[in-house]
Amino acid sequence: MRLSTIGNTLREGLRSIVRHPLVTLASISTIALMLILLGAFDIFSLNARQIMAQAGQQPPIEITMELGVSQEKLSAVSKAMDDNPLVLEHILYTPQDNLEQFKESMENKELFEDFPVTNIPHTFSVRLTDPEQSESFRDQIGGMPGVRKVDLELSVMRFLSQAIVWVNYATLVAFIVLGVIAFIIISNMVRVAVFARGEEISIMKYVGATNSYIRVPYIIEGALIGLVGATLAWLLIYIGYNRLYDILMAGIKPTDFLAMVAPEQIARQIILLNLLVGIGVGSLGSAIAVRRHIAV
Amino acid sequence: MLEFRGVSMTYQTGTIALKDVSFTIQDGEFVFIIGRSGAGKSTLIKLLTCEERPTSGKVLIDRYDVAKIRRGLIPYLRRNIGMVFQDFRLIYTKTVYENVAFAMEIVGAPRSTIRRRVPIVLSIVGLRDKSGARPGELSGGEQQRVAIARAMVNNPMLILADEPTGNLDPTNSETLMALLEEINHTGTTVIICTHDRELVDRMKKRVIEIDGGCLVRDDAIGLYGQSCPIRTRPSLKSEPDDELSGGEPAGEPIREVGT
Predict the structure, then answer these.
(1) Are residues A88 and A174 in the same domain?
(2) CB distance from A213 to chain B under 8 Å?
């Protein structure tokens, strides 16, 4: 293709956007709406995953030491956890701490006033970076001297892992369904545009325009509409999420396990997704529509 | 050279549009194709522009067989045919200049060539001073001249006009025909499908008459309503079938066809 032809094609693509402002506006709005919905799903999924991951790091792992364990053995277990990259945090509870906690949880605290502290073991409460690695962690620590047992809340872990998988599936399904809807809508928009310019297209064919010469401006138009729709949706999502973040995060520390994903991180992720889907759906929808409606 | 060799055309609906039509048009000829509405003139044009393919027979345009041409080559073949329509078919959102330049842009002509050639062509059709106007601001005759400028701007080997004077008054029709005749004098073949009796009679050019899908007359210098007693075109039916390029048609003896 000659440089002048490429220039003409690009110019025609840009012109056709301006020439039919209502059709263009409708297409941009539809794409933007689809991407806002898609973005909302993505935001939900990102936040759900983050909260689940943070919740999974709450201490569902408890290491119970043998009764009367020596200080050396306690230190060895503590050091092993310090050196283990899987361990995010570990806290040692003395028998006295555990007795106090036990008493707190009982209604008649006075009954346990004389309970011998020597019958209560030292324990470690552990948070892991990845909850899915808890069984591997148990195997590493369980065999150490002085360790009586390692309790895992496996049901909680499995639920969290499973929930993350389901959220991923739901996002994928939403992505496909909304993508198909956007695709159908833009394809119909292009069909309207092709019919509106039917006379012009037939003239182009009579003067010897090739299929690609006629089709490419529509594909460029679709891609540009997708680009504008994607940018618009991204802006609205960013502004909306920022407001929501300010409201919901009031009084919650960013390190808290209920903390939402930061707006900047959302903005980075959504812009990529929007551009990819917007431009892809716009140009592909146009390409299929013009292929169906423009035949030499 | 353009040749119809035993061409028949039946549409999918079963309508028979052309029946065993044969004729040859040499480079640089000026030919009228006449016939009543529904006679088959439009089908003939559609075959020439590759919008339709013949059911049987061959349509040869500059050695290309329309029935066998690959779809991808059709646009390139059309670039050798300048089309002029009764309803002008101009793009009303573009200026006169842009309407003509557009035909050159499509064939990938460099911008400098477009800038040089379009004003020349607009001068030829007498519209240089209206190059910035939009077609809606022009008279019917002027719009048809824009269509002719667009048709001739790429130097086609053939100009195919379908009822070009159908929407014009007699004065504009005459101007238009003079213009087409001038283009023809430069060596471009001109084929005009028309109902305009006066025009055909006045121009005294070759006349091919189609009726009921059959070629009924091919007069070298014909009138609209009857065969000219002076001389008629020869038939080419006797030429070998598979010769694509062909030379001069078998010129003698001159005889009438069909009437």
Answers:
(1) no
(2) yes
